Amino acid sequence: MTEVVIFGTAQRGEEAYEILTCISGYKVAAFSDNEVSKWNTKKRGLDIIPPEKIREEYPEAVLVIASSFYVPIRRQLDGNGWIPRGGCFDSVTQIVGGLTEGEKDFLSLFVKRKTRFYNLRYTEREVANTEDYCMERYLVICNGGYPKKGNPRCAFVHRRVLEYIKSGLRVEAFGLIPDTSLESYEYQGVRVWEGGVTELQKVLKAGNYKKILIHFVDEYIMDSVWKAGYIDKPMLIWGHGYEMQPWTRTWFNYTEAEIQAQRQNWKQRDDFRKKFLKELFHRENILFIFVSDWLKNRTKKFVGCCPADYTVIPNFIDCGFYQSPERKEEDRLHILSIKNHNARTYANDLTAKAILELSEKEFFNELSFELYGDGVLFEENFGELINRDFSNVHIHRGFVSQEQMRDLYKENGIFLSPTRMDSHQVTAGEAMSAEMAVVTSSIGPMNEFMDEDSASLFESENYRMMAEEIEYLYDHPEEFLEKCKNAKKRVERQCGYNSTVKREIALILKT
Which domain holds residue 376? Predict the structure, then answer.
């Protein structure tokens, strides 16, 4: 029987305990935690011991880290020599990966309803060296997953990858999704790997990539990069937004009760993120690419410095792909929204309130609205619209592919894209390239990519002003057409191939 010490006493630790008690051959002997107030107390009838006591009291045990902070915890334990001789797992999922399918069936039957953080069907797979091991290749790492059939996540990364390949670069992609088994598939001609941090480490070791290109960097990606022996290899890291900002930039996503309860934990996470980014910023083998000046400036204020090597390149908008027929005045009557509903950042509630405001106008029934999206806030955001059941407001719950988006851009003339914080609204840029009149919030980063000549801007949170902007376009069809033309010209100049991908390819090829 292998004794186990679980490091972490919050929900992840609770779930790790539930899982391990269902796996034969393992016995949880104790918990540990960095929080001093928990030392010498009990959880599940077991002692919670200080980290420095783990190896002393359980020298032959296996240590399982049950915390989202596993990277700094692992370094802390490793650096002080506190890991017992049985070794250390960064997640209980690594133990699950060694079980037979029958054992996983048993585990899923008894634990399924209790686990939120761990994949009970995880299978560990090896990665063989490829036949073209010696050929010059590049790996794009996309945190949160790479697009696959039925899931268009991170499509803006995929569009630039297609251009890299078209230019002659040999590029593969890895979609990082924690605690998932290794999967390999092809998406529109791109070879894609998908898996967790262990799988990323294996793919890097097997691939012998010349340079790695990272989107949405975090400590877990860099831990895999380090373990795979790539820490000193050339890297390009794109800064997109949330991964380089403190929690206060998205305060609107939380209730006051959540803020009071989690403020210290979030500050701790921000302190670690700041230290992590500062270490990366000092590395001369890493070039950082910020997608806007606004993001670069905000990141500098958060971290306290700029990277040793950086540049600013907006996200690529494939203007040729989204090209639409010449706009007509009647197009302004057809209004589109395509938005994620997983956070208040995306401000879908403002879209709903603006439509309700417009419903009081005499011309309302001349308009048609097509609203696409999904997420945990979908019903909260659109509940009133659903209840009112307007005949001209069509709500579609679900996401659409880039090809479907292109068709929707052609069929509609106004694009609603309110936001509370965005470093560069890619979807709004795509709509502009399709000669749509975009209605969006006048906040810092948006003013970098559009103005009143090329879009309609309203004050943050002011849904009445948002409705007024739509009404103005209805009343002034000639200005609607002018904004559409200017929108296309601006996005082609600022975010087209020559201003973005061409520059990125030059940086990838730079030795």
Answer: 329-495
Confidence check: pLDDT of 217 > 90: yes
Q: Is residue 276 part of a domain?
A: yes
User: Is pTM, for the whole model, over 0.90?
Assistant: no
Q: Which of 123, 59, 132, 119 is nearest to 97 (CA)?
A: 123
Check whether residue 293 and residue 338 sit in a common domain: no
Smallest CA-to-CA distance from 12 within 60, 62, 64 is with 64
Q: Helices then strands (H, E): number in the chain? A: 17, 20
Determine how many CB atoms are found less than 10 A away from the CB of residue 452: 11
Q: What integer pLDDT is reported at residue 219 of this predicted model? A: 93
Domain holding 363: CATH number? Answer: 3.40.50.2000
Shared-domain flag, residues 156 and 271? yes
> Is 123 domain-assigned?
no
- For residue 372, what are the β-bridge partners? 338, 396
User: How far apart, in whole angstroms, are the C-alpha atoms of residue 209 and residue 452?
Assistant: 45
Looking at the structure, do residues 238 and 155 belong to the same domain, yes or no? yes
Total of domains in the chain: 3
CA distance 277 to 282: 9
* The residue type at 116: R
Domain match, 279 and 150 both: yes
DSSP per residue over 427-448, as a string? HHHHHHHTT-EEEEE--TTGGG
Q: Distance of CA 22 to CAs 27, 103, 324, Å?
A: 9, 9, 58
Question: Residue-wise over 408-417: b if at least 16 C-beta within 10 A, else e?
Answer: bbbebbbbbb
